[in-house]
What does this fold into?
Amino acid sequence: MATFFGEVREVSSRAYDEDEEDDDNVVVSYKVKEELNKEGLEKIPNVKAVIISHGKLATDFCEALVLSEKCINVGTLGVEVQGQTDCEDTGDFHPRHPTPSQLFMSPQSLLVCCVSKDVKAVVASQFAQVLLGLLKSSCMVMVLSSHHYGALKGSYEPQGEDNCVVHSLHSPAFSDSPVYPRLPQPATIDSVPAAVLTECVVGSRPCVLYSVYTETYSTGDLDLVVDALIKVFQTGPFKKFMPASLKQNKLHQYRAKNPQNETLDRYM
Amino acid sequence: MSGTSYDRAITVFSPDGHLFQVEYAQEAVKKGSTAVGVKGKDVVVLCVEKKSVPKLQEERTVRKICLLDDHVLMAFAGLTADARILVNRARVECQSHKLTVEDPVTLEYITRFIATLKQRYTQSNGRRPFGTSCLIAGFDMDGSPHLYLTDPSGTYTEWMANATGRSAKTVREFLEKHYSEEAVSTEEGAIKLVVRALLEVVQSGAKNVEVAIMKPNEPMRMLDIGSLEKIVTEIEKEKEEEAEKKKQKK
It folds into this structure.
């Protein structure tokens, strides 16, 4: 670019970053914080089992069918993000606060944690440590996670009347036999389910993970996984935590109460 | 899911032979509400889940079953706007065919037209596939009933009964168990089967379903709410009786 006096001044290009023009590195850090109410502080240490749901359909299943009107909210696990300032960092024109993960307690001393979608892989280990740190070491842990069948990286063949495929992993301390077969290679799990299972293996806690794979990401397809996931409650140590009979109308009620899952008129 | 660069362009195959954009379009179909079709001896029936209309919305703009010609019905699932384009193109083709060859289109012809149009959009740069799956039903000139299903890839197949949209798999399994030629040999039997199939995945109630019926050389008619309520009541009664029998067996 030529100045008024004719000298040529080099103009830096935005196509590459010059070292001396680098901003100070923005360090983004995450902190998982538990916020328990009075019932949570009293009851969580005595919990006998915990169910952790991760993924849309798994969370929908827990909210619609595992939880009942008698369950109480005992607190939340929130993620605080520090160091992230504006949309240039996030690419998000409407930066928002991460949604906390809700903790519920059933009358049968079952703790249910519906992991928020804002709990990303980068904070999963910390999340698992904080959550499991609230519980005694003998507490049984079940993780339910839902995925698209592409994550299976192998053959996807629903058996019998199932509309999905379920696989399991468990920690050595889990003495019962999982209801579904072991997750085959080369499929892997990540994020919160992996972090929880790792913590349980390291801490010698009994833990079983059931990951369900479906052909669709679509919301409102809870009925694809209901039959398959109910089976994990029909035997084994978690049997006593499940209602004796499944009420079909709970599914309809859930859809009616969650209209944000439906995109008005764009899809018919 | 894929996490690769093969899902951004419609014209690129992945190493394992997937066209991810087409598969994503099939995901869009699964976001749409369920549509079921049954072909009877001399009747074709299409039944769709009726979405509740917001208070201020005009109900007539929300239609899942369309007439392509006097003898051709279509129900779709997926992106509404894409379906509208397909319906318009199909209607023009029906009239163009009639003017050119002086005969109405056959079901196979118009289905192939729609499917070819869809396929073209899976092989063109700068375009995306139609996110719609269509159930096309009706009668040819010789009086034979037909039911076809097209999907975003441009495939079309003929069926005796099928479903598309959300929970289609569940409905299809129900149809496989309960479909028989005797069951659909009458108009009432065909209507009952299709309504019962849809009620497997939709909240029970006449206000949640819409039924279109076509017979040879007769215009399409929509089942009125009174008749629908009777059918739904009958179906619920039969379900209760079946449940009671199962309990007694145990």
User: Anything to note?
Assistant: DSSP finds six helices and ten strands in chain B. The helical segments of chain B are 20-31, 80-101, 107-120, 168-178, 187-199, 225-249. Chain B has a mean pLDDT of 89.
